[in-house]
Amino acid sequence: AAPVSALLIAAEAPPRDEAPLPAEPPTLILAASDAAALAGRFGTPIDLDTTPSPAALRGQRLLVFAGQEGAPATLAAIIRAAAAAEGCAASFTLITGDAARQPGAAAAFALARVLSNEMPGLAPRRIALAGLAAHAVPRRLRAELATSGEPEVTLTPEGRLAPRLQEGLPVPPCAGSAILAVEQPGQIGSLAWRAAPPPRALAAGEVRLRVEAAGLNFRDLMWAQALLPEEALLDGFAGPTLGMECAGVVDAVGPGVALPIGAPVFGFAPAAFATHAFTRAEALARRPDTLSAAAAATIPVTFLTAAYALETLARIRPGERVLIHGGAGGVGLAALQIARAAGAEVAATAGTAEKRAFLRAAGATLVLDSRDAGFADALRAQWPDGVDVVLNSLAGEAMARSLALLKPFGRFLELGKRDFFEDSRLGMRALRRNIAYHAIDADALPRARPDLAAHILGDIAARLAEGALLPLSHRVLPSESAESAFRALQASTHIGKLVLPPPPPGDPAAPAWAPDEEGCFVVTGGAAGFGLEAAKFLAARGAGRIALLSRRGGATPGSDATIRTLAALGAQASLIACDVTDAAALDAVLRQLRAEGPPIRGVVHAAAVFEDAPAIAHDAGHFARVMAPKLDAALILDRLTREDRLQLFLLFASATTPFGNPGQAAYVAANAGLEALARRRHSEGLPALAIGWGPIADAGVLAGGGDASLALVRRLGVESMAAQHALGAVPALIASSLPVVHLARLVRDGGGIDLPIFAEPAFAGLARAESSGGAPADLRATLRALPRGEARAALIRHAQEEIARILRVPADAVPADAPLPSLGLDSLGGLELRMGLERRLGVQVPLAAVTEDLTIATLATRIAGAIWEGEQAALVEGMMEAYEPAESVI
């Protein structure tokens, strides 16, 4: 999927002054205190704090004027009014101020999106008034109320604006110095060359290369797809970057480097898919004159891995037999050369007939099909005693069968990663015959053993110069075909190596965003979670001073490790205890930072509190607790940093805001306020970017994994992202010059609940989930045609299936007569159950809360009434029973 942003687009011109006013149906008006004057132009408003009864709302058009403040009490009152109106009122319309730039209005506006999902029968319309003259408001608003179709609009002097979801970012391709980046983490299709950061000073032992060609490895593919866990990169030389090997020319050297400027070299370098790369001198070797840059780019990973495995660890001898899995890949072909050069016999596996034919031509004695589970028997049939060495890249049972092929004193060389990260168990019995087991990751060698890596690379270069070793078969793809190269590796359709050169030199381009090395960056919520990951991101890109603000400050568990980690990345960091919702305390901290220096150059606001619950359970206190650390604190930061020459004002919002994520009314409202603040600052010429993040898997609330992450996938159809992958998109998002962007990985295969709001025109570009159980109209007709008893049994089965999906248990394990709370269904689960059943059945499900006496059987009875009665009376009665208090007043 792509980063998505709900943008306002002009849809039509404002109506002419002489346009006739439409006739109005019976109307009841509620108004917040700051909107009472406006509401009075349409009738006599009732204070929003006074909730009308459902009976008083029956058949009425309800207009709720929320104004601009968006206070917690106002938001809670909107929910009470919506709950009373659902199933009773003829329509419900929320009218706010400028929701694009007024944080309070934006909070109320986004709350109505949540209500669109949680109360689909209410179908609340949202109308924002932006910059209209007072005399124009009644005419424009009445004209809008007379129309239908767009559930969300903004009325401005220039036109009527409606939201449309757009994918992608208007970031031009770079010229000049460039680096390959994954713009949307996890999506190969978003690979693009972008402007590289400006050159930095070289430390002792460092070399800057002008890259001529870089080799592509499975590690790069897995990193681009967000499939590598962070632990897989901790010990590696390349770290969390694209590209780890290349060939090029020495462009500059740091102190203590003997390589001359202009020397052709090949070797290891982080972020090697770039026009220029920075690396250590010991990770490079002189390139023989007979070797082209593209051919040399096939050497470092493949031959270093093969030589280290077979010669350094296995100490292969003449006459020994070697089994090489993945023989047609880069490492496999390099290992084939090294084994044959040592006088060994080679058995190699490959997955296609073409690759197996190539291996025979390359000198393999025995060629096997790696996709055939009987490859071990086939080898035993030719070599009954087995083999002396296995170079393995297979996982699971295939790995165990390969281990069993070893002779006594055999050596098992493990190149695969899957079994390590899955923590697979290996029976020790297989090693009883003096078997040696070695786990190999060549990327770690230049970092952990630079002397050994330099020695092996130098020896390989010498043998290449002599002709004792030959460069690998390879295919060079042009720089503009980066995505094709990655997909070819993904499909494993190639033999040997894939090589990618950088783009040719062009006109200088603006460098990618990097933090001011001489400035201080303030990160709220920075002591842990995603805020800490943001601090790491800033440090890795050159921020010299970082102040991490949190309630506990230095008392946060792991604070010493946090300081050490950021120091290792080059930043001086401090943990400061500060309640960011306390304006006086935050002002004191900022004054202290300015006094100590360096000047404050950036703010990252990542603080957040989560209290998920159905909207009906939100009161003013609930809104206040969630909104204070996010929206209130952001407004304080905006006010207190106006005099600082900021380079960055980054607000962490949520990709759920445009969708009105069910169960997160307060959180959605708070994040919408952040977006409005970013737009307001942007319109004033101040730096501002609100990023609506999709779920982050390895930091913050989802770091524990499991149920929370799975629930998000089910409810919204999104997948989680790794923190550093997500943050890697920040420079491109800044370059887009948009004040608000949402970054999410959307499920495109019908996964997730089809939220009611997705039926609105704003989301026409999204692939909607397939409805289970057939089309709702067809299913209702089928149920009506059945005898009542059978139809009720069918409804029970549908409810059991939905609950089973939510709880991840078999449907037959969900009893029809057990109270739902005893099954583990909480209030949010009840909300999800209601939405799922409404999607299946196409009728409102009268389920307001999960009570102790609610069972599937009683719920089925309620739904049956809504299906069979065919009139609103039964539905209204059910909703009144759920929502109407014993005594209600207007």
Describe this structure in words.
It is built from 29 helices and 32 strands. The strands form six sheets. The protein has an eight-stranded mixed beta sheet with strand order 1-8-7-6-5-4-2-3. α3 packs antiparallel against α20 (620-640) and α28 runs antiparallel to α29 (872-883).
Q: Rg from C-alpha positions?
A: 32 Å
Shape designation: globular
Structural class label = alpha/beta
Mean pLDDT: 83
Contiguous low-pLDDT stretches (5 residues minimum) are: 1-22, 171-175, 705-709, 748-752, 768-773, 870-890
Strand composition percent:
15-25%
The main sheet comes to: 8 strands, mixed
In helices, the fraction of residues equals: 25-40%
| Secondary structure tally, helices | 29
Side by side, the strands of the main sheet go 1-8-7-6-5-4-2-3
Oligomer: single chain
> Number of DSSP strands?
32
The N- to C-terminal Cα distance equals 48 Å
Helices and strands, with pairings:
Elements: E1 4-12, E2 27-31, H1 36-39, E3 46-47, H2 54-57, E4 61-67, H3 72-85, E5 91-96, H4 103-118, E6 125-129, H5 137-145, E7 152-155, E8 160-167, E9 178-182, E10 191-195, E11 206-216, H6 218-224, E12 245-253, E13 264-268, E14 276-280, E15 284-286, H7 293-296, H8 300-313, E16 321-324, H9 330-341, E17 345-350, H10 353-362, E18 366-369, H11 375-382, E19 387-392, H12 397-403, E20 406-414, H13 418-421, E21 436-439, H14 445-448, H15 450-466, E22 474-476, H16 482-491, E23 497-500, E24 520-524, H17 529-540, E25 545-550, H18 559-568, E26 572-577, H19 583-596, E27 600-605, H20 620-640, E28 648-654, H21 665-683, E29 689-693, H22 707-716, E30 718-719, H23 723-727, H24 730-735, E31 740-743, E32 745-746, H25 776-785, H26 788-807, H27 827-841, H28 856-869, H29 872-883
Parallel strand pairs: 2-3, 2-4, 4-5, 5-6, 6-7, 16-17, 16-19, 17-18, 19-20, 20-21, 22-23, 24-25, 24-27, 25-26, 27-28, 28-29, 29-31
Antiparallel strand pairs: 1-8, 7-8, 9-10, 11-12, 11-14, 11-23, 12-13, 13-15, 30-32
Helix pairs in contact: 3-4, 3-20, 4-21, 8-9, 8-15, 17-18, 19-20, 20-21, 25-26, 26-27, 26-28, 28-29
